[in-house]
Amino acid sequence: MKRILIVGAGGQIGTELVPHLQKIYGIDNVIGADLRDDLVVKMAERGPAIKLDACNLVEFAAAVKKYDVDTIFNLVALLSAKGELNPRHAWDINIGALVNSLDIAKECKCSVFTPSSIGAFGPNTPHDSTPQDTIMRPDTMYGVCKVTGELLSDYYFTRFGVDARSVRFPGLISYAQLPGGGTTDYAVEVFYSILKDGHYTCPIPKDSYMDMMYMPDALNAVSMIMEADPSKLVHRNSFNIASMSFCPKELFAAIRRRVPSAIFDYKVDPVKAAIADSWPNKMDDTCARKEWGWKPKWDMDAMIDDMLKHVSAKLGIKLSI
Ligand code: AKB
């Protein structure tokens, strides 16, 4: 049975990964850690939770030893759009937590999962059917951190035998916790706006395609890659995984089929537009499918139905579709 520590657990992924892993490994074997008191208090309502700064090596290592941890999920991240506001800060946070996770994993013989992202790709990457192994020259600090994370994680595996594994997440869509500071956030924000205000102003150009994924598929990807038979893994850091790709125009048309009164317009944010334009339209995830059996369950239509159901319930709005 694993003993898991999830750092950065109060964010969009962690909020759902903690209960997902607790279901698999038992509540007491999964400890959620975050820097923010309010998020720690919320996590503590359902299981073990601690306040922890993952950029503080001593504090982080002490927690791993104290709780006898053998698997670290490093979810600490400052996302793409926010990272451009203060690139040095983004580097310090993203790389600080990563290097600490890897060093502690080396010392304490832990496995490590650190998510990579479509943000690891850049303008020179082939945008359609983006291959597993291809040009990676991102032009955001977030992307630079993600490529660094992939390279360092592979380095710690080959040089020190650290069992480091990862997937490249598309934009993640979920209703439990809002994302913050990402380029793909529009695909979550839209549901709240049209249900609350009947209207959404989109910061991403209407024809800009990006890979997206519904959270239940993302959670399955994380538990599957960490349970995958290591002898079958040709790659490790990091695997392309894909399930749906759409542009704002397509998403909004599909939402309007269910909520005909919804109004959409655009006020393009040039920073987000440039980032979206530099990322893949759709990744090729053949290697993940072959090496560890990746198979998504959610497409765009199923995701929209589920998001409308859950976000309207959360907002206390009665929706008849
Ligand atoms: C972002 O938009 O920055 C993230 C990501 C795709 O990694 N959601």
Characterization of the model:
The chain is α/β, with parallel strands linked by helices. It has helices at 12-25, 37-44, 57-66, 80-83, 87-108, 141-160, 186-197, 215-227, 248-258, 270-278, 286-292, 300-315; strands at residues 4-7, 30-34, 49-51, 71-74, 111-113, 116-117, 128-130, 163-165, 167-169, 171-173, 199-202, 210-214, 239-240, 244-246, 263-266, 282-283. The protein has 2 domains: 4-169 and 214-240, Rossmann fold; 172-212 and 244-281 and 298-315, UDP-galactose 4-epimerase, domain 1 (Alpha-Beta Complex), CATH 3.90.25. It has a 6-stranded parallel β-sheet, with helices on both faces. A 3-stranded parallel β-sheet has the order 6-9-13. It has a 3-stranded mixed β-sheet with strand order 10-12-14. α3 packs parallel to α5 (87-108) and α5 runs parallel beside α6 (141-160). The longest helix is centred in the N-terminal third of the chain and has 22 residues, at 87-108. Residues 79-80, 117-119, 142, 169, 171, 179, 182-184 line the site of 2-amino-3-ketobutyric acid.
Please, how many helices? 12
- Look up the CATH topology of the largest domain: Rossmann fold
The small-molecule ligands in this entry are: 2-amino-3-ketobutyric acid
Helix and strand pattern: EHEHEHEHHEEEHEEEHEEHEEHEHEHH
Q: How are the secondary structure elements laid out?
A:
Elements: E1 4-7, H1 12-25, E2 30-34, H2 37-44, E3 49-51, H3 57-66, E4 71-74, H4 80-83, H5 87-108, E5 111-113, E6 116-117, E7 128-130, H6 141-160, E8 163-165, E9 167-169, E10 171-173, H7 186-197, E11 199-202, E12 210-214, H8 215-227, E13 239-240, E14 244-246, H9 248-258, E15 263-266, H10 270-278, E16 282-283, H11 286-292, H12 300-315
Parallel strand pairs: 1-2, 1-4, 2-3, 4-5, 5-8, 6-9, 7-16, 9-13, 10-12, 11-15
Antiparallel strand pairs: 12-14
Helix pairs in contact: 1-8, 3-5, 5-6, 7-12, 9-12
Bound molecules: 2-amino-3-ketobutyric acid (AKB).
